[in-house]
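pipeline stage [seq->struct] | target=Reverse transcriptase | organism=Lolium multiflorum | residues=80
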Amino acid sequence: MQTTKKQISEQKTSFKAAIETKKHDLVEGATYQRTMQRCLKDQIGRNVHAYVDDIAVMTRKGSDLLSDLKETFDNLRRCG
């Protein structure tokens, strides 16, 4: 079976779109990470871990959970 110019062009276009999408995702991830570092700087390492696309709020005691969550949400609201 012979590949046509149209099929080759579609494959290249599809591949290029996938690369551009990946680049866009990387930029968004880096921007998100910087924003989380800035917003949660006092909490990171103490009761928060900020990952590429996720925030984990941790607590040492169950009784601290609500205050830790409140602190996190207040910080996120403050940053907009």
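stage status: PASS
auto-comment: The chain has one domain: 5-79. The first helix runs from residue 5 to 39.
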